[in-house]
Amino acid sequence: MAASDIDPRLLRAFVAVAEELHFTRAAARLYLAQQALSRDIRRLERELGRELFVRTTRQVSLTQDGERLLPYARRVLGAHAALSAAFVDPAERPLLVDLNTDGMTAARVLARARELAPGCELMARFESGLTWAAGEVLAGRLDVSFGRAAGLDPAVLAQLSVQPVRYEPMAVLLPGGHPLAGRAEVAMSDLAGESVYAGAGNMRTLEWTDLASALFAEWGVVLAPPAPLAVGVAEFQRIMAKTGNPVLAVAGFPPLPGTVLRPLVRPVPLSPLLMVWRKGIGHPGLAALRAAAAELARAEGWMARPPASWLPEADLSLMSNRS
User: What is the pTM of this model?
Assistant: First the structure.
């Protein structure tokens, strides 16, 4: 079989496993049984005449041929999604909007967009981090997401449009009994020597861990080691209590029982929030989202940087541009 005849379903299976490096997680992501996913990967390897993965009882990794296939597979899936969208009236399908976490800035943008475009169906999704969500956007499984775009692979970012939404001041989530919990605010120098969790080990949130690492390096803060990936408030609270580490967050992070959220100051570190979407989307709901983000930013000063703030130059550059 020629490579041009490969079923896109097999490429979706390949990309999911390549990004997760874990068959169980990839199967859950695709809503497939693990046995069916493994069968699709074997079929793709037979059709290409190449082994794409090295599988052991402990880990999954890409072979050299797998590494070579991955960018091509992403481009094919992106083109396939664009082709499908070209022959569907955009207003007739839902716009899938990844908020990352509920109750924060992106959720407010979505709520206002629904008011501006009541005839559009804007469906919320809750994924974990823009690193992973950007791949879903390019593959057509999501339409829009939010996060720190400067942390994305440049090849991925080049295929996306972006709109700056907000400079979000960072904060630290502290266990109630932590020595710093009684303070109204926490200076960066107060965290020197502390081990602070910022998503290390979570491959879906690499952009956040990268930003934290740059911040921590300047102030002598230790990046806490990987912790089990917690989904949901209860699980996150349990893992946080088990490790005892403070957690890097943003000022609008939802309340969590047994913890206190304190703003970080001197300097005020910023988390750059951008809206990202696949180039070429013509859905009217996207226009409503862009208008809602711009309206709220103007009304609430979201794009005003506080005095004595901190943000890497790459983020400042991206936040100053619009697609």
Answer: 0.73
